[in-house]
Amino acid sequence: MIRVVIADDEMMVRAGIKAILLAAPGIDVVAEAGDGREAVELVRKHRPDVVLLDIRMPRLDGLEAAAQLRELAPDTAVVMLTTFSEDAYIAAALSLGVSGFLLKSGNPRELHAGIEAVADGAAFLSPRIAQRVIALGDFSAKRGAAQTRIEALTPREREVLALVGAGLANAEIADRLHVVEGTVKAYVSTMLAKLELKNRVQAAILAYEAGLAG
Q1: Which CATH superfamily does the domain covering 2-134 fall into?
Q2: Residues in domain Response regulatory (predicted)?
């Protein structure tokens, strides 16, 4: 069962998201927060697998809450949920090392898919957000630096990086490489440490920059 905390200052929005999530098997909404500070406390209390954070909330906004949760609850995947697709929000959220970014106006199936993906250790960006990240990134200009950066990786770690860039979860990578999932987790951890990356979203972007994905 994937345990989720929802944080949004609009009660109707929380109710809608909760209804969508509870309609999917294997997902349980364990708590709801109306502001960022309450979200941090509820995550500290419940230790959910995933927390959905609205960008704009009173007392503590989603970005500030995400920054605190990366330190307080590193095992909880943080997914930003917003109606805003401005570039500044995308860049700020990605720099914090969040696990996913979803638009409230997206398809409910994206919400299910995103929760399941990040709970399984993968990264997830709404397709519209992914398009913005790709459009914003001048990958050709960064290609040389990115390729130099990944020289620190072994051939197998580079292969794992490419599959992370393709959006595959650990179990899918394990199937593709014919290894056990624990081996993939070890490769991913080592790869992130070598590249000094916070999480798989940043790894996926680097994979694009290096020409390993896309």
Answers
A1: Response regulator (3.40.50.2300)
A2: 3-119
